Amino acid sequence: MLEAGIFDVGVILHLKSLVGKMARTSILMAMEDFYAVHRNYTTKLVLHIRDSNGDNMRAASQAVDLLQNYYVRAIIGPQKSSEATFVSDIGNNSQVPVISFTATNPTLSSADVPYFLRATLSDAAQVNSLAALIKAYGWKEVVPIYEDTDYGRGIIPYLVDALQEFGASMPYRSAISRSANSDQVEKELYKLMTMPTRVYIVHMSSAFSFGSTLFTKAKELGMMSGAYAWILTDGIANVVDSLSPSVLDAMDGALGVRFHVPKSKELDDFTKRWNARYRQDNLDDPPLQLSIFGLWGYDTIWALAQAAEKVSMDNATFQKQQDIKNSTCLGTLGISTMSIGHKLLDAILQRKFRGLSGDFDLRSRQLQSSIFQIINVVRREPKGIGFWTAKHGIIQNLNQNGSEHTYLNSGPNLTQVVWPGEVSTVPKGWQIPTNGKKLRVGVQTSGYPELMKVEMDPLTNAIIATGYAIDVFEEVLKRLPYAIPYEYVAFHNVKGVSHGSYDDFVYQVNLGLVILNADWYKYKIDAHKG
Ligand SMILES: *[C@@H]1O[C@H](CO)[C@@H](O)[C@H](O)[C@H]1NC(C)=O
Ligand SMILES: *[C@@H]1O[C@H](CO)[C@@H](O)[C@H](O)[C@H]1NC(C)=O
């Protein structure tokens, strides 16, 4: 009786990675919790957990092994988008549902592979929230810095489209190879510094350790300072609580978008139990913060266990199909659980419930975007500064129960952001790359000092220019959409004796000097007086 109810399920994760470890603990807890609540169920999932070690081929061969030798009726995982490309095809060909709660590359979902589901969002879901931020701050150009993998590249076309909608563009794309060393990361950052765009979207998964190297290097090179804006996609933002203090320190001032998990008593309770359990499962590891991936893993088990029970109840002849296969190679891998596979898929698709992660609804073969939280890394802590919803755009607060319908303080207001370098003014996002060169602005004391007066600071030898013409000039610079670093160059010697005639002064334009000509005002005033 018990034997007949066994429902074999393969699990393929990268067990040494942060997300893999987190998910393993969540999945095991979900099994215990589910069957503690459903003691009378006639089926029971039996998990066969495998470590892909982050390797596509290994994930694929494990999927084949699980199907052929363990007759699994569903596969949970794999973890990475590139692994999912293979495993989803293998599952689809055998008509065995493959449910990944971490693979977010938008191109994975397609009507051609109906047996691939994801209990996570497609990366296409978050691009609108990223674009909304870019738009809200008035930035016109953005450079994505992403890992050069299926995952990293997958988001780019969607981001291009979302930016184009309001006329922003992507003048350059910075793809960082998986095999890059920190010198190569540094070289790439130097390259970015020579370009005018100062707004970066960092799209890397937590398994890709260069997220950490990137920020540490960027900080070393002075790119985590006032002129720059950094935005994290949810690849890093979803797990930002688990990053080491030194990495968070380097990220200070970055913005990020991440999936918003509604607060609940169940979640609080689970988080406490999870923390204790994770420590127990990983005695040698530092504590880890539970992230959304752990919750999606948990909810996936509940969805699958529920669907398994439904299928077995609906199917009187349900039994372990031992007789089906004895082939050993992929080419002859048959449709082992054909009738079950189809019914199981339907049962999962139709099962909609409120899980720990929020609404769990796979009817469109993936979770739908609901709400993204906007975070700002401030003094090593991710601080929530607002939300983005498809309906309302950027807003400051959700109501108490996080429902979609009623909002407080509607309208973009993200003024409390602390930007890189602990600056409170919004970076302009664009700077004429100078490599140390500044725009040289020639100035000369006017006949009317209230129009322009040029002095030299006796201590620093810096030129101090004041007066109406200077005020106007500086105001104009402030209003430009990009920053121009400049310095004043006096067109007279220290004693205030001009180096030459007015014509000589103007001639300096040919020598690369921009001239502020206060004497135009003088002329007008003289004429008026006359
Ligand atoms: C996936 O499975 C479906 C149904 O069995 C089939 O129609 C489709 O061609 C398969 N897709 C691929 C890419 O093999
Ligand atoms: C294994 O496959 C072979 C060839 O398809 C078949 O003749 C044989 O009966 C199968 N064995 C079992 C145990 O099903």
Automatic annotation (TrEMBL):
Record has Transcription as a keyword: no
GO molecular function: G protein-coupled receptor activity
Stored CDD domains: PBP1_GABAb_receptor_plant
GO CC terms, sorted: membrane
SUPFAM superfamilies the UniProt entry points to: Periplasmic binding protein-like I, Periplasmic binding protein-like II
Compartment(s): Membrane
UniProt KW Mitochondrion keyword: no
InterPro entries associated with the record: ANF_lig-bd_rcpt, GABAb_receptor_plant_PBP1, GPCR_3, Ionotropic_Glu_rcpt, Peripla_BP_I
Coiled coil: none
Domain of life per record: Eukaryota
Record-annotated Receptor ligand binding region domain positions: 24-378
UniProt keyword list: Glycoprotein, Membrane, Receptor, Transmembrane, Transmembrane helix
Membrane-protein topology: Multi-pass membrane protein
Entries under PANTHER family matching the protein: OS06G0188250 PROTEIN, OS09G0428600 PROTEIN
Protein known as: Receptor ligand binding region domain-containing protein
Protein species of origin: Aegilops tauschii subsp. strangulata
